[in-house]
Amino acid sequence: MNQVNTPQNGGLINPSDAVMLLIDHQSGLFQLVRDIDLPTLRAHVTTLAKVAYLAKIPTFTTALVPDGPNGPLIPEIHQYNPDAVYIPAPAKSTPGTTPHG
Q1: All structural domains of the chain
Q2: pLDDT digit string (tens) for 62-86?
């Protein structure tokens, strides 16, 4: 079994057994965040994308209805991590229905 990397054993995140998943980092949703100012939030998310790219950590993004009222993903994510893979989120369904019919 692989050893878990922790600060206690001197390990850091190992890109070979890590992924970065950025969910719903949409421009419209950022406007709703109240516990951090918008420029700082954008800078933090951009830094996550940059670090993941530089460390070669596989990165995935997703958003529900990016062409809807919540807007698209902030462009900095894919700008600074061109290897990030966008995975379209499945449509939400109500109980007793399926997303596609």
Answers
A1: 15-86 (3.40.50.850)
A2: 998 888 889 999 999 999 999 999 9
